[in-house]
Every structure is written in structure tokens, then in C-alpha cells.
Specification:
- With about 325 residues, the protein is mainly α.
- The protein has 2 domains: about 210 residues, Rossmann fold; about 90 residues, Tyrosyl-Transfer RNA Synthetase.
- It has 13 helices and 5 strands.
- The protein has a 3-stranded parallel β-sheet with strand order 1-2-3. It has a two-stranded parallel sheet with strand order 4-5.
- Strand 1, helix 1 and strand 2 form a beta-alpha-beta unit.
- It is globular.
- GO terms for molecular function: ATP binding; tryptophan-tRNA ligase activity.
- Its main location: cytoplasm.
- It catalyses: tRNA(Trp) + L-tryptophan + ATP = L-tryptophyl-tRNA(Trp) + AMP + diphosphate + H(+).
- It is found in: Cytoplasm.
- Homodimer.
């Protein structure tokens, strides 16, 4: 008799809080696509996370659908993966509350992303921004995820998720699987093109700092040609040359070539040809995705069919875990 082995579960998500960058693509999305055949994957558009900073409602609506279209255009098959919008699954908000009552303020105050972001927003920091890592923990734990494919910047949130899960399991009884981060070998931290010691981020004020997945080819070429390097003129993967190192990382994540192969290829050549090739690699990688995003965003009915099916599957899995949590905490079930 054939034995069916349960596939391991994967959960990840991207915020529709701005246009997606090459960092989101290489640090997350590109790797998700590789996992879809071997795992039971839940890929979420985390709109509830996006409202931790002020959003224009019509932009949020547009971007939520654009992120969904980008998931599919990047190669996520809606029949193989559960692709859904976070706010369509109420269990996320409910579980987040229950977990908030199992999380210490001290833990949340230590989150570096909160510290960075709260500096930027000064006196108008929303409570949601502070509690956001708990919502992220709820996202992951509700699906009993084994692995969470993310970029480096989310590692600390994942450690907190594990701590919260372990604490809940210890104070009640085993309820959650303890998830592991799954960080790509290449592309886990794509840096800012103008200040290559900072992470590339969609919230940077200088558009030359980042490449958007939807940037037209000529814009990509311009941004790469203006990317900050140094005066050494040597293509070398080293911390002393953060700009060049970042471009090697990008080229390597796209082409699969190793750092050494890239260094060798450009030995004695300076930066001009190297930068041109990096730009062309990005253009070549993104062009088909851009084309498909444009087509998909005009097909609202198709997108709706994807998120409706996704919500149904996600609701089923998430509600199961939520009921378990409620029962263990001591809430009275409405029906047995
Ligand atoms: P977000 O929306 O900021 O980013 C989405 C994904 O992109 C990765 N990423 C990067 N990777 C490499 N280099 C970069 N410069 C770069 N910038 C972003 C992020 O690491 C992430 O994997 N809290 C999360 C969203 C979230 C989530 C979750 C993720 C909510 N719930 C549950 C995993 C599981 C966030 O703000 O990601």
C-alpha cells in the first residue's frame, strides 16, 4: 500500500504597504516559488500588518490586489498553494489577541524593527505597530507552520514567535508546532543602492535607493548605473566594498552563479560592464513578471477567484487551531 507522508507546512507573507522591491522578490518571493511542490504552502497578503502605519484606503485596495497578482506572476500556482488575504481570515485577529495576553511588553520593546520605525514616526506611533510581531506570530502559529521563508530582517520576529509558542505550550499543553526560519542562502539581505550598509526598503525617501519589481527597464538601468560603489575598481565580494558586494549578491541570486565565478568573470575590468550585466540580469528576470502582473490586474474576477478559494482553505486550517487555543485558555465553546 502506498504511504502518504504529510507535507511540511510553510507560511509566509508580504505587506501591501508600498510597491514591492527587488529585496522582497529576492529575499522572499523567488524562494517561495521553489518550495511549492514539496510543501503545503500558505502565502498571505498581510493587509492587517500594513495598517500599522497610516494607509490611504484606495491605495491599500489597489496594492493588495497587485501583491496577489505579483505572487501569481512570480510563479506561485494558485492550485498548489493557499494564497489568501489576511483580513479574510478573522482567526488571525482573534489569535493575536490571545497571544498578546501571553506576550511581555519587554519582549516587544526589544524588537529592532519597531525601534527603527518608531524613530521615524516620532509622536504618532500606533499601538498596532508595537503589537505587530504578535500578529505575525498568530499568522504563523495558526497554520502549525514548520518553516517560514523570510529575509534576514524578519529573523528576530521569528525568534519571538518561537518564544511565544513555547510559552503557550508550556503554560497550557502542546498546542503549536515550533516554526523554523528558512532564510535563503543568497539574497536574504538586499541592500540600499545609495547607502549599501542599510537594507533596501520600499519606505526609503530616495527612489534611487531601491528597485521596484514594476520599475520599467530604463529605470532599472539608470538606478543600477547610479548605484554607489567605490573607487577601487575591483569586483570583489567583501565587507570593505558594500556597494559592489550588494551588486554581486543580486547577480548571484538571479543567475545562480557563485561569488567566486562572478569575481573571476570581471577580473581587471572595472565596474562599467559589471553594472550593465547586473542591470540586464534584473531586467530579464523582472520583465516577464511585470508583463503578467499587468495582465492579471485587469482580470479582477480571476484574482477574486484565487483569494476566495484561498480564504476558504485558510479559514478551515486557522479556525481549527484557534478553537484549540480558546479551549485550552478556558473559554466556553458555543457548540461542542
Ligand atoms: P515585509 O512586507 O517587510 O517583507 C516581505 C518579505 O521580504 C523580505 N525582504 C527582504 N529580503 C531581502 N532583502 C531586503 N532588502 C528585503 N526587504 C524585505 C522580508 O524579509 C520578508 O520576508 N512582518 C513581515 C510580513 C509578515 C510575515 C508574517 C512574514 C507578516 N506575517 C508571517 C512571514 C510570516 C514583513 O513586514 O515583511
Amino acid at each position: 500500500m502506498e504511504q502518504t507522508v504529510e507535507k511540511k507546512v510553510i507560511f509566509s507573507g508580504i505587506q501591501p504597504s508600498g510597491e514591492l522591491t527587488l529585496g522582497n522578490y529576492l529575499g522572499a518571493l523567488k524562494n517561495w516559488v521553489k518550495l511549492q511542490d514539496d510543501y503545503n504552502c500558505y502565502y498571505c497578503i498581510v493587509d492587517m500588518h500594513a495598517i500599522t502605519v497610516k494607509q490611504e484606503p484606495k491605495d491599500l485596495r489597489r496594492r493588495t490586489l497587485e501583491v496577489l497578482a505579483t505572487y501569481v506572476a512570480a510563479g506561485l500556482d494558485p492550485d498548489k498553494n493557499t494564497i489568501f488575504i489576511q483580513s479574510h481570515v478573522p482567526a488571525h485577529a482573534e489569535a493575536a489577541w490571545l497571544l498578546n495576553c501571553n506576550t511581555y511588553i519587554g519582549e516587544l520593546s526589544r524588537m529592532t524593527q519597531y525601534k527603527d520605525k518608531s524613530q521615524r514616526y516620532g509622536n504618532s506611533i500606533l499601538a498596532g505597530l508595537f503589537n505587530y510581531p504578535v500578529l505575525m506570530a498568530a499568522d504563523i502559529l495558526l497554520y502549525q507552520a514548520d518553516l517560514v521563508p523570510v529575509g534576514n530582517d524578519q529573523k528576530q520576529h521569528l525568534e519571538l514567535t518561537r518564544d511565544i509558542a513555547e510559552r503557550f505550550n508550556n503554560s497550557y499543553s502542546p498546542t503549536f508546532k515550533i516554526p523554523e526560519p528558512y532564510i535563503p542562502e543568497e539574497g536574504a539581505k538586499i541592500m540600499d543602492l545609495q547607502e549599501p550598509t542599510k537594507k533596501m526598503s520600499k519606505s526609503s525617501d530616495n527612489p534611487n535607493s531601491f528597485i521596484l519589481i514594476m520599475d520599467p527597464p530604463e529605470v532599472i538601468r539608470k538606478k543600477i548605473s547610479r548605484a554607489v560603489t567605490d573607487s577601487l575598481g575591483i569586483v570583489k565580494y567583501t565587507d570593505e566594498q558594500p556597494g559592489v558586494k550588494n551588486l554581486i549578491t543580486i547577480l548571484s541570486a538571479i543567475t545562480g552563479k557563485t561569488h567566486e565565478e562572478i569575481e573571476k568573470e570581471y577580473e581587471g575590468q572595472g565596474y562599467a560592464q559589471f553594472k550593465k550585466d547586473v542591470a540586464e540580469a534584473i531586467v530579464g528576470e523582472l520583465a516577464p513578471i511585470q508583463q503578467e502582473v499587468k495582465e492579471l490586474t485587469t482580470n479582477k474576477e480571476y484574482l477574486e477567484s484565487i483569494y476566495k478559494k484561498g480564504a476558504e482553505k485558510a479559514n478551515y486550517a486557522a479556525t481549527k487551531t484557534l478553537r484549540k487555543m480558546q479551549k485550552k485558555i478556558g473559554f466556553i465553546p458555543l457548540s461542542k
